Amino acid sequence: MVTLQLDGVGAFHGRHLTISGISTQAFAGGEVVAVIGPNAAGKSTLFKRMAGLLGGPGEVAVAGTQRGTSGICYMPQDPPTSAALTVYESVLLARKQNASWVVHDTDLAAVDEVLASLGIADIAFRSLGELSGGQRQLASLAQTLARDPEILLMDEPTSALDLHRQMQVLSLVRDLVRQRGILAFIALHDLNQVLRFADKVLVLAGGRSRGSGPCKEVITVDLLRQVYRVDARIECCSQGSSHVIIDGYSAAGGEIPHRAG
Ligand SMILES: Nc1ncnc2c1ncn2[C@@H]1O[C@H](COP(=O)(O)OP(=O)(O)OP(=O)(O)O)[C@@H](O)[C@H]1O
């Protein structure tokens, strides 16, 4: 089983150490780990460091992989688009593992499967350049999933999607994680989506870790107050699941004068 553990991890942008000292327990295949925190907390930076795109101190310790670093698939927050390709071509190209790759029937079948599972077979032959923002995000998701990841790093993969699509994508990722033993890290801002879909959470703020572990243990009223500066309740709904309800927020930290609603 694939595992990933962070040990004193930091990352440089140029000479500036943007994140530092991030350590966690070992996360294992079959788990969805939400990476949460306010804007500029360091979530994208950590993903780039985990994907090997940024250098820095500490160790991203990966074990149990079949394909080494090529099994780590990173979906950036703003993926570049090559407007000349169709969705189908871009997803097929994502299957390319090395320079000697030639297309096999299994590649074509994998592309068909991923397009169908994301519900975007109808735009397979549209150019990437003519898609809506949400369609582009779905195409980027298809490219990432088509790589047969062992470890998935997805930076706000649902930020451009409508509610139905958010549910569809997060359910699909969770099902793939369970069925294939993938380890998925997903940066999300919607904490109710986190409580619904993630098994564990890693909280960042100011470039440092503010805790990690099972969602219900880590996401507390105190954490929401300290990290997000919101006055919130976490309540169980009639169907038994936990929800974050925001009552107010602080403009400057400490006191929480603004009441929502
Ligand atoms: N290319 C860069 N050069 C210098 N600093 C950068 C660069 N990219 C990000 N940073 C800085 O690193 C810090 C963390 O940014 P990062 O993008 O990782 O945050 P984030 O948690 O993903 O934020 P958001 O939720 O807003 O997407 C910020 O202070 C940001 O200004």
From TrEMBL:
Q: Which GO terms describe its biological process?
A: zinc ion transport
Q: Which domain of life is it from?
A: Bacteria
SMART domains, alphabetically?
AAA (SM00382)
Q: Where is the ABC transporter domain?
A: 4-231
Q: What InterPro entries has UniProt attached to this entry?
A: AAA+_ATPase (IPR003593), ABC_transporter-like_ATP-bd (IPR003439), ABC_transporter-like_CS (IPR017871), Metal_Ion_Import_ABC (IPR050153), P-loop_NTPase (IPR027417)
Organism source for this protein?
Azospirillum lipoferum
Q: Which UniProt keywords apply?
A: ATP-binding, Ion transport, Nucleotide-binding, Transport, Zinc, Zinc transport
Q: Name one Pfam family in it.
A: ABC_tran
**What is this protein's name?**
ABC transporter ATP-binding protein
| Stored Gene3D superfamilies | P-loop containing nucleotide triphosphate hydrolases
Q: GO molecular function, one example? A: ATP hydrolysis activity
